[in-house]
Amino acid sequence: MRLIRSRELKGQFLDDILNRGRLELESVAEDVKGIIESVSTRGDEALFEFTQKFDGVRLDSCTIRATREDIDAAYSLTREVEVRALRKAASNIKRFHKMQFSRIAFEQSSGGVTLGVSTRPVSSVGIYAPGGKTSYPSSVLMCAIPAKIVGVERIVMCSPPSPKRKFNPYILVASDIAGVDEIFCVGGAQAIAAMAYGTKTISSVEKIVGPGNIYVTAAKQLLSERVSVDLPAGPSEILIIADDSANARFITSDLLAQAEHDENATCILLTSSERTANEVRERVGENLKIGLGSETARIALDKKGIIIIVDDLEEATTLTNLIAPEHAVIMTRDPSSLFPKIRNAGLIFLGQYSPVAVGDYSAGTNHVLPTGGSAKNYSGLSVRDFVKTISYVCCSREGLKSLAKTTVTLAEIENLRAHSESIKARGV
Asked: Is residue 371 a part of any domain in this protein?
């Protein structure tokens, strides 16, 4: 990992960090456009061709979709302890998102005027579950359960084929637990295009959600005018704020954990302690040397692993808000004092015993989060992503009377006579 002082964080180096998402997407945009165009014009034929090319798996219209027999077989390929873990995570995710949903709609009445917000689910949702070298059944739970809670009628999932077998058994089991309706063995930008345009085999959806690599993220952004998408959720990111009280072993383990997601993962430590900075850097190197970190993690930390020694924790919060990381971890003596100062982050973890891994899997919060600095403008995935809110007004005669003068006056200011007459006509 690169070790610098905050005063060195300037110029092109700083620009590359702040614009990391845009730079990555630009690098693949033309390739992704070609894939999207091919799927939009050639449909299934293009899907099968790209799956063969990128994943080395030959599919057809009969084998691309998972059957009930495939799902039942998946359970036999997983251990009971694994299924229990998926069910426990699903239960926690369901509990947290039900609480979210209960707080969206409301109604308030005063003086004969009732105002409120009601919700309506989108009709169909497409979920992308990353796969390839490894599988992410947790992403299936994170995307499908909130959609199910709000009442989405049709939930479709696409995930890349497993190297050993067509469908990854954990993906199928998670999909079954979460209530996914249709499961397809296709990944990458081609899967996003298929869910957006529709093919003979995969019907189009109203919204696409889920994390993925830069090709998936680029495809979602390029197709966002055709289909609603959730947020830019690309390669994983972690930013840790630490002082001299932080446990260097904990910091090291959290950096390695996020780095193993993707060779393009961003891993940053901001610390006011030179001792902590040096100890973490040494521990990271030792862990990688003896094989405690994967090759993916080594590449990620070499490319985008940075330890920054800041003057104080105030500077750390300022930099955090500039960088806007997917995951922000506060390992200081008093995490709660810094928490209100962090405006830009996908999800915040407070204290030494709140590793990002519990957010990834089991706590119940959603792990589909904005990356590439988009936490400045986006929130993490929630039940709100699967509903439209409709406000409503219901006035009694007395209620309308209380609003009549204000309404007529403003309508006349804007020279909209029919507006004012619509009030006067009611004789209030």
From this structure: no
